[in-house]
Amino acid sequence: MLARITSATDSRSAGRVAGFGVAAIAIVLGLAALFLFLSLPDANAFNAQVEQIFVENTALTSGDNIRLLEILAQSGTAFSGVLASYRSIIFVLLVFATALLLAALVFLVTIIALNRRMGELERAGIQVSSLLISRDERTVYLNNMEFALTEAAIETLSVLAEARMDGDVLSGAELEAMISGRNAADCDEAAGATRIKRLRDALGNQMVSELLVKTIARRGYMLSIDKDVIRMV
Fold first, then answer.
1. DSSP 8-state secondary structure symbol assigned to residue 170
2. Residue 160: which residues within 8 A CB-CB, separation 6 or more?
3. Is the whole-model pTM more than 0.70?
4. Closest CA to 184 of 194, 192, 173
5. Strand, helix or coil at 38?
6. What does 57-121 look like in DSSP terms, one character per residue?
7. pLDDT, averaged in runs of 10, over the chain (233 residues)
8. What are the C-alpha distances in Å from 63 to residues 54, 55, 60?
């Protein structure tokens, strides 16, 4: 129940972060767009200045002056087209920047959520719904994952599974004694620890191996799973 409450709280927190992020991006880009568009001159500003010059100077009525006015008007029209294209380019760039910032925000929220989920897994341990050990095939089926183990590793895991079903915690010496068939007093603690290390190495996936085979300080080793999910064939 606590894990569910924590997960729901994390989801709401991530949702709030995403909402605030989207709002901040919209505000910043909206202000930037407003500033840029207000800073750009009016598209007809050039034509208006040329018209004002000819209105204020009534002497400019000759054919050459009229021709000059036409040339200036054409230049103003070209300038207006260029300025309109600049506005379109700026708009496209702002849209592209918005998309990139939103994508970055989504990735950030996803990474935060995954990190929190990984933290929950590390605290709660691996959730195992089934553990099938096949000694003949030297294969372990952990949930939907299949691990092909060496004979020594499968024996170590089998002994740990049997101990887990009995609710026992095995020391390194006891583990070595059960596998080798000797008395625990004649076995070395380091030999059992070596078998545990080789089992973890054989499982390969560090998260699976570390969370599946649990080390209990000053007591020994055990499988950190429910004994009811264990089956051996």
1. B
2. 170, 175, 199, 213, 221, 222, 223
3. no
4. 173
5. helix
6. -TT--SHHHHHHHHHHHHHHHHHHHHHHHHHHHHHHHHHHHHHHHHHHHHHHHHHHHHHHHHHHH
7. 45 63 76 74 65 66 66 68 75 81 80 75 63 85 80 88 87 89 86 87 66 78 78 76
8. 13, 16, 9
